[in-house]
Amino acid sequence: MVAPITRGTALGGFFSALPGIGSTISSSHSYALERRVARRPERFGKGAIEGVAGPEAANNPASITAFVPTLTLGIPGDPIMALMLGALVIHVIQPGPMMLQAHPDMFWGPVVCFGIGSLLLLVLNLPLIGIWVSMLRVSFRWRYPAIIIFVC
User: Fold this and answer.
1) Which pTM value belongs to this model?
2) Distance CA 60, CA 68 (A)
3) Contacts for 84 with CB less than 8 Å, ≥ 6 apart
4) Most exposed: 11, 25, 48, 152, by fewest CB within 10 Å?
């Protein structure tokens, strides 16, 4: 399980740091790679855990590394970064190569928040794995309305 997660994380970090490429590309490349290196590729599409773990691991760094082209070049990596770019421009903050000198707080603030957020996710989710797994035992007809209510 460690190998698909590692490969997915590497692919997600690489592809999402490129300008104009979102997390979909890195996830699809991760799935294709896992299918190519699998011993039994016929399991893919039927619940192979490698086909889920790799793309999900590629999706996580993609959301963070999409900030790289947005803040350094002014080119959004995905639709969310396009909104972020618009918000920066509205507040008269010009993203690009000079942003680190002109507005270091707007650059280093998200970087520090990403590190703190990653550590908090690790600290909170590892002890709660049993609870998350037990929630899957709840019937779908009860889970689905609860999810809809929490989302709304």
Assistant:
1) 0.67
2) 14
3) 67, 70, 76
4) 152
